[in-house]
Design goal:
Helix content: over 70%
Low-confidence stretches: 88-92
Shape: globular
Order of helices and strands: HHHHHH
Distance between the termini: 33 Å
Radius of gyration: 12 Å
Number of helices: 6
Structural class: mainly alpha
Number of domains: 1
Number of strands: 0
């Protein structure tokens, strides 16, 4: 099992996330690991989905929060503007 699959299973567990969520999270995770310049665009796409009517569910938001909390070290190495997005979650 790959790193993404392991993190994904751990984050989703029993939650009933929507089908469209996994490819969005996978794209952000890949970009995060590879330090891809596409990270900002994919992150914006994920956040837009989570703010949309079909994406704004407790299961989706909890799964994404848990998934990326497992990748905290990778966020710390990003440029400051992208790090601040993660910090907003910590303040709440």
């Amino acid at each position: 099992m790959g790193q993404f699959e392991s993190l994904w299973r751990s984050a989703v567990r029993y939650r009933h996330v929507t089908r469209d969520l996994q490819p969005l999270v996978r794209a952000v995770h890949r970009d995060l690991v590879e330090r891809s310049p596409a990270l900002k665009a994919h992150l914006e796409e994920l956040l837009a989905f989570l703010a949309s009517e079909p994406g704004r569910t407790d299961a989706n938001c909890c799964a994404v929060d848990f998934f990326f909390s497992q990748c905290q070290a990778a966020w710390n190495e990003l440029p400051r503007p992208l790090q601040l997005l993660e910090r907003v979650r910590e303040v709440r």
